Amino acid sequence: MILQCPSCRSVRIAANHTGHKVCTSVGTVAGVASGIAAATSGARIGATVGALAGPAGSALGGLAGALLGGLVGGVAGGSAGAALGDFIDENILDSFECMECGHTFNVDTD
Ligand SMILES: [Zn+2]
Predict the structure, then answer these.
(1) Cut 0.70: pTM above it
(2) What does the pLDDT read at residue 26?
């Protein structure tokens, strides 16, 4: 699909993904925050399982559980945020900008 400016018919179009960028960041932060909660229980489970291998195993298990919980939360939040941002970009914000005349517009998807 070739994008064209609805105002001047130029094909020099730049995509703005403001919603995508903002929501990915916010989603990642929110995900990490909830991931911290998951990390706490992850650490507890890891420490319990690791305790079977002795005190060193308990410490390592706790660390691994905490890292996994935080990481999974951050990635999940970031993905959810990116999806939401794409939706906002496509439906609410003007997603494209003409490099010739500066006109911003949205693409009609139907
Ligand atoms: Zn234009």
Answers:
(1) no
(2) 80
Distance CA 54, CA 9 (A): 70
Segment 30-42, tens digit of pLDDT: 877 777 777 787 7
Tell me, in angstroms, the distance from the centre of ligand 1 to residue 84's CA.
28
12 Cα to the center of ligand 1, angstroms: 8
Exposure string over 10-38, b if 16+ CB within 10 A, otherwise e? eeebeeebebbebbbebbbebbbebbeeb
Å from CA of 13 to ligand 1 middle: 8
Instruction: Give the E-state strand segments of 26-108 in sequence order.
Output: 96-98, 104-105
Could you give the CA distance from residue 25 to residue 102 in angstroms, rounded to a whole number? 27
Any residues with CB less than 8 A from the CB of 71 and at least 6 apart, and which? 35
Whether 110 shows a pLDDT value over 60: the answer reads: no
Distance between Cα 5 and ligand 1 center (Å): 5
